[in-house]
Amino acid sequence: MAAFVKAVNARIRSNPVTDYFFSTHFWGPASNFGIPVAAILDTQKSPEMISGQMTGALTIYAFTFMRYSLAVTPKNYLLFACHFVNAGAQLTQGYRYLDYHHWGGKDKSAVVSKGVEAAKEAVAKVEKSV
Asked: How many domains does the chain have?
């Protein structure tokens, strides 16, 4: 059995394409893409749920590993792309957090919700009269 595994491994490693797809240079970034995908999906949720500290930490993490992915030999461009997307998503979330919590987004949201309630009441009055 050990000889069979050794033979399969040698065959995989002899081809550069399969060697790449069976290495951590591929599977590390591929599995790591869950973080930016989750951040992108979170941009559709309410900004009141965003944690400013976690967003800041993930932004620093993304920029650190963007640098790391180009510092290793051989350069890992897939890891760079993963963290580039993550940095963009985290910066977007950071902007949404700051806009909502520090730049008056809460107040704007309250005004809009009051306007929506007033519109609903007006529609209800019209429906009753009809």
From this structure: 1
